[in-house]
């Protein structure tokens, strides 16, 4: 009997050890596979993003730790695969033409450009002024993007009883031979929609700071009656209902600056990076807190102060950081809000896997970055489908609580 038991125990032990060895070897196999996947996709995944949204580097760990985050991370790997496929057709932005800092510094004092197309009555047409002015950075040639924004989240009119107005912010196109008739097209567009602001500076990445300055002084001059402003990119999805809901509890005569705030970002000192900033241009080790340019909110009062302050701060080629410097000048701490995902959580690809393209997820958020024209269109229509029922209604409320979480050092303009 005893021998029998002993035999059983030995047998069990033996089996357990065998199982452990098997599991261990499997694990090793998986992690090896993962490593390979990472190293092979990393440069590929990074390249198209830089190519599409140069001022929005990755911030991958943003949502880790939440149950929702897990879902997002898993869909990110799908996005990686997708971007790998993109890569075969899109030429990599491998060598962005070197930025001429000397030239930039020499011309830094040249910071006033004419307004070629104005909408002087944009805010006067609304009695008492708009509740929310939506200002969207756009390039002249992005006619389709503007069109889809107009028809979806950027609609003018009443949103939950609050008046919303819209303007697009344009500079002159870099490549004029590509679209010789651009100016008359833009003027026609302006006559049709009355939402175009066009300034006489070249619309380049490093001139976005000029766009920032000129928009703020335009708002100060032509739209002082607005209560709040949302400023963002054309490739974002904005849940304007959520913005209005949030803003109803705020006072426009008080300071307010809310977005996806990046703390303690360090200037890039490697020459080959697109975000390279030499020490002669910025000597400090970290940037002031700034909002990711995908989208942020400010009050009318803050707009006036910033307009003044940005006029006094020296030009800096990265517009998000420049605005952070203006905020620092008026001693205003920007507030991080979890609803702003300006670095793009994932690229929800519409057709093949509808699960990751979940409108209920977007219902919780305010701003989501890096969407294609068709995705914005589809998302808006899914969200406004009366049959949409999201089971996690409680989470919707939760998402609007203030979270005064500060992030650790981030290297937003880093690798
Ligand atoms: C400008 O656009 C034209 C037509 O699309 C193209 O042939 C040309 O190479 C472009 N020039 C530059 C400098 O990108
Ligand atoms: C900014 O725009 C001005 C005016 O069009 C132009 O002279 C300058 O080269 C542009 N700067 C950059 C960095 O693109």
Structural class: alpha/beta
Q: How many strand segments?
A: 12
Number of domains: 2
- Indicate the CATH architecture of the largest domain: Alpha-Beta Complex
- The coarse overall form would be globular
Order of SSEs, N→C? HHHEEHEEHEHEEHEEHHEEHEHH
Low-confidence stretches: 28-96, 343-356, 392-412
Q: In whole angstroms, how far apart are the ends?
A: 67 Å
CATH fold type of the largest domain: Spore Coat Polysaccharide Biosynthesis Protein SpsA, Chain A
Q: What does the radius of gyration come to?
A: 25 Å
- Overall pLDDT confidence: 74
Helicity level: 40-55%
Provide a count of the helices: 12
Bound molecules: 2-acetamido-2-deoxy-beta-D-glucopyranose
- Strand-residue proportion: 5-15%
Largest sheet: 9 strands, mixed
* CATH level 1 name of the largest domain: Alpha Beta
Question: Could you please describe the fold and organization of this structure?
Answer:
- This protein has 415 residues and is α/β, with parallel strands linked by helices.
- The chain folds into 2 domains: 2-89, no CATH class; 101-341, Spore Coat Polysaccharide Biosynthesis Protein SpsA, Chain A.
- The chain is built from 12 helices and 12 strands.
- The protein has helices spanning 2-52, 67-89, 101-106, 143-151, 182-193, 208-222, 240-247, 300-312, 319-329, 359-363, 373-383, 393-398, and strands at 115-117, 132-137, 157-159, 162-172, 196-202, 228-233, 237-238, 257-262, 290-299, 335-336, 340-341, 367-368.
- Strands 1, 2, 3, 4, 5, 6, 8, 9 and 10 form a 9-stranded mixed beta sheet that branches. A 3-stranded mixed beta sheet has the order 7-12-11.
- Helix 1 crosses helix 2 and helix 6 (208-222) packs across helix 9 (319-329).
- The chain starts with a helix and ends in a 17-residue tail after the last helix.
- Bound molecules: 2-acetamido-2-deoxy-beta-D-glucopyranose (NAG) (2 copies).
- One 2-acetamido-2-deoxy-beta-D-glucopyranose (NAG) binds next to loops.
